[in-house]
Amino acid sequence: MEPVVNIRKPHQIQILSSSCETVAKSRFYKFMSPWLGDGLFSSTEVWFNHRQLIMPALCSNILDEYTAVMHDKADVLTEIMRAKVELNPDSFINILDLVMRYALDTVCESAMGINMDIQRKPENDYVTAFYNCIQISTERYFQSWMRWNFIFHKTKRGKKFLNSVECMHKFTEKVIRQKQIDKFKRPDSKDGNQCGKRKNKAFLDLLLDINQSGNHSLTLEEIRQEIDTFIFAGYETTATAIIWTLFAIGNDPGVQARVHVELENMFGNCHERPTIQQLSQLKYLDRVIKEVLRLYPSLPMISRLLDRNSVIDNYFIPEKTLITIQVYQLHHDPEVWKNPEIFDPDRFLPENSRERHPYAYLPFSNGSRNCIGQKYAILEIKIIVTKILRMWSVKSALKPTEVKLVSDFTLRPFDDKINLYFTPKINNTRTN
Q: Which residues bind heme (predicted)?
């Protein structure tokens, strides 16, 4: 067992980030290695090489490739929610499971380019295996006796984990091989054109394009690892951010009114899908999401394993020490944030942010290991939140003080319930 040091002050995090050229990710990610291998969460130089390789697939000018899927899945979710609202208009809806399925449905199609229809058909082998791996890995992190492989792999949970990993790997590899065959049959379809109609590319298509360019070469296993990692990284953190955004808005009528005004000013009564450019102009919604990620960071703590000796606040910390950045405590520190428990999106106005320490706010980590998919995540959050709030006003059944939080991998409600009332919006004229 390695020694553990907890830090939560901005200057301490800055020292950690700047004093080490490479800081390996910690034990939790090692538990994922049979599933994710040497993908984005790896603790070796493979991580750096692969990160440089896949960054173009997640940069701003590629995000258009993913928006159609996000909109399609948002349509499915709102159809399901509309049916529930119409069936029991005076009852609340627990949105947690619905949003979780939406997020997994979205990221799977974004990653592999196949419609798994998880929201309508949640019972399938891949989804079951995926949930098994998430749950068992989290259990393993908090149960010390399960941390040793020679014990864990002999337990029922260990065998279930490995069987689930095998199930997902077989599925993903089958999809990859089929895509490779399709690309071989249509070698000139690099832009995704089929019969004159442009088809948006999935993350897998972009990886295969990189391979086809001749500048890089990824093995089948490496491609599968990147796909698995994309799905894992883009699922629960994004889902919880969406859930907490709707919860926070549903608890603050003033904030919700300002969001509705901004949406009406931008879209009026138009029901067309918003473009990336339009979404980027929703400045108040931007601040709302930032404030939600401060109050409810998807990753309440981030662990790193030091690869060399370091000194923080005159304390010598030897290499191989587990450093845990307490993000939730950082974001709620009254020495860093004025009135930290108050939901105030305007604290992210430019004039209120200039003097803030650069390491005071870590919604997507920071330093060399920060989340390269954050633009994808923010876009997905905006698309679904905008879709919902153009259709309904939302009201939370519980106040923030009445919801007990729990931190396993992400920050979640203890009882896995976020109950909201949905009231259909009356179409308003454009606000000047």
A: 371
